[in-house]
Amino acid sequence: MSATTNPTSTPMSVKERLFHAIAFEIGAILVATILVIAFADTKMSSALFVSVIMVLMAMAWNFVFNLGFDKIFTAPRETRGLGLRIFHTISFEMGLLIFTIPVLAWVLGLSLWQAFFADVGLTLAITVYALIFNWIYDIGRLKFIKVKVSV
To answer: Computed from CA positions of residues 134, 140, 146, 151, in that sequence, does the dihedral angle turn out positive or negative?
Structure first.
């Protein structure tokens, strides 16, 4: 006998993880490009280039980080509360800063200190975006993914 249930305890497949990462990063490119143009004295092409480079780095980090995070925190994703979501988001972004500061400095011609502050500003904006995106994704996942379970 089989029944259709919500994916309450169904982990994300590799295919779904790739979809999640790509969807997230497309939005992140838009947010980062708009912010770089708004706050830096740079051309659109430079803002887009730095956003794409940072997103490619973030996609790789996203895949690795979330794979490890899900192995440590095994509760169903949709049951994660605000505290764990904030911890997840902040720890992800702090790890990413290590890789992105030199890229910002190089592409935008900033000192490492200037790049640090610019990256922290971008990170704060993307952190809010990540929190909102992932929460909405997990709730939406319940509506669109059905899993057949043998009973």
So the answer is: positive
Q: Cα(148)–Cα(101) distance, rounded to whole angstroms?
A: 45
3-class secondary structure per residue, 93-110: HHHHHHHHHHHHHHHHCC
Specify the 3-state DSSP secondary structure of 102. Answer: helix
Residue of 139 and 151 predicted with greater confidence: 139
What pLDDT sits at residue 149?
Answer: 39
Using an 8 Å Cβ cutoff, are 24 and 140 in contact? no
Cα(74)–Cα(13) distance, integer angstroms? 14
Count of C-beta atoms within a 10 Å radius of residue 24: 20
Radius of gyration of the chain (CA): 17
Taking only the tens place, the pLDDT of each residue in 135-149 is: 899 888 888 775 443
Q: Which residue has the tokens 């929190």?
A: 131
Residue 147 φ then ψ, to 5°: -120, 135
Mind giving me the DSSP string for 32-74?
Answer: HHHHHHHHSS--HHHHHHHHHHHHHHHHHHHHHHHHHHHHH--
